[in-house]
# Entry
Amino acid sequence: MTGPTLTFLGGVREIGGNKILVEDGPDRVLFDFGPSFSPRWEEFYYNFLQPRSTSPAKDLLEFGLVPRIEGLYSREALADADLAYRSPEVHAIFISHAHADHAGHLNLVDPEIPVYVGEGTRVLLDAIESSTSMKYGPHAWRTFPDRSAVRIGRIEVVPFPVDHSVPFAYGFLIRTSEGTLVYTGDFRQHGPRAADSVEFFRAAAAEKPTGLLIEGTRAGPDRRRNLSESGVRTEVDHLLARHDDFALACTYPRDVDRLTTLHAAAQRAGRELVVSARTAHLLSSIAPRWPGTPLPLPGTPGGVLVHQRKKKKFYEYEKPYLDTALSSEQLREQGRRYLLALDLAHFPELIDLRPPRGTPFIHSMSEPFSEDDVDDQVMHNWLDHFGLTFHQMHASGHASTSELFEIVRSVRPGAIYPIHTEHPEAFAPLGARVRPPELGTPYPVAR
# Structure
């Protein structure tokens, strides 16, 4: 096939796992590289059954869970795999944001391949790596300024910030010798940075793109309420106003927008938000790069407080917060003063917290994808045991179907490629331009 091409190596009929290869002549650029959230992964790996650390790429290649591409993986990742190591033949990787399903396989990549990320994303990846088991591996890191073109041979990439549930998320204009592709990454238009998404799609429309690579997480059947971030704030405000004792919340530790929402609601109710040391570390790390209202940081007036769990060993990132951290017993004694953001992994602290029966538990995360979700059942077992009342209050990090359709109509691309969705057929009402991609099939980039 002559001329530039577009190949989907992941994110096809699945949530997450985006791996998009754009080729123009000798130049090859990959966009995102992470595992999927699809059931196929759990056909082979689950909980403690994971790929071997001595040959991760080999184990994933065995089941087709990573693409069989020469010149992408490191020697160490391939080990004794049946895919031979070759010097890099991918010339750059662009990461849209720091969620695991977009960046979680970087540890497999040859360290000589430049990895391009936003300046804030680079800081966030460091904070994640220093406080979790996630490891991205050594790389030739490159940071790009917002809205400034980066040229990789014939391919020019322009990153635009977008609104999403993790900070420093990007969409990309990808200019080739035969036209422009628009890759949305993950995005929404109902959060605090909705204006960024609007600006990105306005710029995308001006390019008259040949193709729109659009995430469709919420396309098709979607039982979730379409709350905005301000809507979450209103609901939390009302709930806290009705309760004058202890209150608990659970949210994603990297959803900084939600943490600031919970903090503002706690302050209005005369409470203080208490977070884990890991969350405090993340907030402190990214604060210098945060583009909006200053973040509520530990150790500052009106900032967050830190919860000290019972454990035998503390990691380096936790130690700066230990002197002033509050134990579960201290929180229990003066519960009405606090809103505690308790991670699901830290539920054993409930045994010491002993919240009064009827204490509200704000679940500010996505609903389970199915009613028999095992983790969801375990969570409710804990809530029922302690007599906590469950309240679902969450604004999705993804655009609704109606929002997706509105964006497609405004951008008016030559072709529409639905990705990061289990329901590409949901885009069928948009007409013949919809091309549900096939895994590994090259598509021409034609004007």
Q: What stands out?
A: The chain has 13 helices and 19 strands.
